[in-house]
Amino acid sequence: MKRAKDHFISRFTVQMKTKKAIPSKIRYESFLIGVLYLVGTLSLYEDVLRRGRPYVYPTILMLQLLIIKTWMRIPSNNLLHYFLSLDTTQNKKILGVCGLCNLPDRRTFDRRFKILPLKEMIGTMGGVFISERLVDNTTGSVDSSLIKAKGPVWHKSDMKNNCIPISGIDVDARWGFSKSKGWVWGYKLHMSCSTGRLIVPLSADFSTANIADNQTYKFLVHPLAGLLQNIIADPAYDDGKLYRYSKENNLRLVCPIKKYDSTSPERLELVEFYESVEGQEIYSDRKISIEPLFEIVKSTFGIRVSPVRRFGNVKSFVLVCVLVYQLMMYYNCVTGMENPRTVKRMLCN
């Protein structure tokens, strides 16, 4: 335990030495402090009055603390609490940017991190990229990617008998299949992104690996209604309900679609557009946008295999990685970075 604590203290000290000249409108001591300050200036979420006891710590503050945990790759809330309790100059600067006088209890971390509205914040941040014209506002892309669960797999025969043959199995995970990876025991990250020069996540959702892609489509595109014109997707989204939902929200869903003898006139129009020169040109952006983005996000935060177990923990960890990636790219855009997608150096990877 002591060795782990010393590792994160050493890592933090090295990170605080990284400095970058940025506009004076954003205070900075390091990339981390710059991003934390940026979070405090954005209107990602507003706490509303609710029944019962009001929150002592605002949602945005808890988000900043979760960003610190993710950025520093601190593996547990216990270690995060210990790390932030250290009386160092760097910690004072971090807590000062967050506006935190008293450190929350560790159990507060456990409770609040699980219920942070990360999906809504990611959607809001995606809207910021579009409204500020930092990304192309015509076409977005949607897809999903499997994430292996931590520990051994739970075979279907044992699941059927409700038998856990070995310790360490993440019992919340499920089996999912992809053409590139085959059968995977784990979870699934669903995401939409921009296309064109700057590719950035616009919305995200999370599920177990057995959930079909078309079941999360509506949540992914809802924040994009009125902001984009086209949504491109793979054949898994070829669903009449999704075409109608897209049309109702002034979006055009473009995905591979086949014509049959009994194809309705409405579907024939979709086939004709997909096979047209314009349709093929729009769809060609998919392979150079959403597919590489998944690999970049996974590589940046090391989430090809989940570092934690149980659905709530994995969901919180993966979605905050997507949000942090958005924030780092936005930070680079605001500070005039030539290539905003250069984010690994910010994490000292």
Topology:
Layout lengths: L1 H15 L14 H11 L17 H13 L5 H9 L3 H10 L7 H10 L2 H14 L7 E10 L7 H5 L13 E5 L3 E13 L6 E8 L8 H5 L8 E3 L7 H9 L3 E3 L10 H11 L1 H7 L6 H12 L9 H24 L15
Parallel strand pairs: 1-5, 5-6
Antiparallel strand pairs: 1-3, 2-3, 3-4
Helix pairs in contact: 2-3, 2-5, 3-14, 4-6, 7-14
SS element count, helices: 14
**SSE order, one letter for each helix or strand:** HHHHHHHEHEEEHEHEHHHH
> How many structural domains are formed by the residues?
2
| Portion in strands | 5-15%
Low-confidence stretches: 7-27
Oligomer: single chain
Protein structure class:
alpha/beta
Report the mean per-residue pLDDT as an integer.
Answer: 88
Largest sheet: 6 strands, mixed
Shape: globular
- How many E-type strands? 6
- The radius of gyration is 22 Å
Gap between N and C termini, in Å? 23 Å
Fraction of residues in H or I helices: 40-55%
GO molecular function: DNA binding; transposase activity
Domain Transposase IS4-like: 140-326
Organism: Nitrosopumilus ureiphilus
Protein name: Transposase IS4-like domain-containing protein
